[in-house]
């Protein structure tokens, strides 16, 4: 079964045509690395996939459900199955690490926001939160405020919060962009280990091409709102990926020849 299926997706912001007939499929349990220069439409695609932004044309199917035909309550229910790891962590800085991880359960029907507060959380929730922190190596920081942690540690907290969500799909939008190279590699190692253990589906955007060569099952490249490269990771060369960041490139100039032989609009 396909975890994510996108067909002929278009998105405009005013006169700006951001996504231009984009089509892709991601199988359950697959890890896909998405590459592309700033402004190519990666973030817009991510927002469309988790329902934060509506698309203008085409179809998005997540875990068998078409976003176009879902009511708002059904969309909220589906979004609980999609965990998001952000570049800027999106943690509440002045509360504890433990509380931030508990917030990951607030979208689950039987819990909710009040039930995910540390002072009201059930024994089950508290145990799950500590287990999630243990998994990311931060159980000893449970009672520290998030603002006291390093960037790498805060991203570990964000991953632990996603584990609390019990998501089936992880969308990671440049999760290591604000980290130094050593911390970035540690976070990627952790993230991919966790999703492998739980057999989750992952779509992760990266800018670090050397790291992109080390992670995931497939490399997908975007340029000017289109998919121009889609190939197994082991078969893509660094020089091929670098072409995604060059201007005025046509699709038929990108190798290997696994892309459509159509003109690529310029950025």
TrEMBL record:
Residues 4-249 form the ABC transporter domain. This is Phosphonate ABC transporter ATP-binding protein. One of its GO terms (molecular function) is ATP binding. Keywords: ATP-binding, Cell membrane, Membrane, Nucleotide-binding, Translocase, Transport. NCBIfam families: ABC_phnC. It is a peripheral membrane protein. It comes from the Bacteria. It comes from Vreelandella sedimenti. The lineage of its organism: Bacteria, Pseudomonadati, Pseudomonadota, Gammaproteobacteria, Oceanospirillales.
């Amino acid at each position: 079964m396909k975890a994510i299926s996108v067909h002929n997706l278009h998105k405009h912001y005013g006169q700006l045509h951001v996504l231009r007939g984009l089509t892709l499929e991601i199988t359950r349990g697959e890890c896909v690395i998405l590459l592309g220069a700033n402004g190519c439409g990666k973030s817009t695609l991510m927002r469309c996939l988790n329902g934060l932004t509506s698309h203008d044309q085409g179809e998005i199917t997540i875990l068998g459900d078409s976003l176009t035909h879902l009511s708002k309550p059904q969309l909220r229910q589906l979004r609980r199955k999609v965990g998001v790891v952000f570049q800027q962590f999106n943690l509440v800085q002045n509360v504890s690490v433990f509380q931030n991880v508990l917030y990951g359960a607030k979208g689950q029907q039987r819990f909710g926001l009040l039930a995910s507060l540390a002072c009201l959380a059930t024994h089950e929730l508290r145990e799950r939160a500590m287990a999630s922190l243990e998994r990311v190596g931060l159980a000893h920081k449970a009672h520290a405020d998030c603002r006291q942690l390093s960037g790498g540690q805060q991203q570990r907290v964000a991953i632990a919060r996603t584990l609390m969500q019990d998501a089936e799909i992880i969308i990671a939008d440049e999760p290591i962009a604000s980290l130094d190279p050593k911390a970035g590699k540690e976070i990627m190692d952790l993230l991919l280990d966790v999703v492998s253990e739980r057999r989750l589906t992952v779509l992760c955007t990266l800018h670090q091409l050397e790291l992109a060569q080390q992670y995931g099952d497939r490399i997908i490249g975007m340029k000017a709102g289109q998919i121009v490269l889609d190939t197994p990771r082991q078969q893509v060369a660094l020089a091929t990926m670098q072409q995604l960041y060059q201007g005025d490139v046509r699709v038929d100039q990108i190798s290997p020849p696994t892309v459509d032989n159509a003109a690529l609009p310029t950025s």
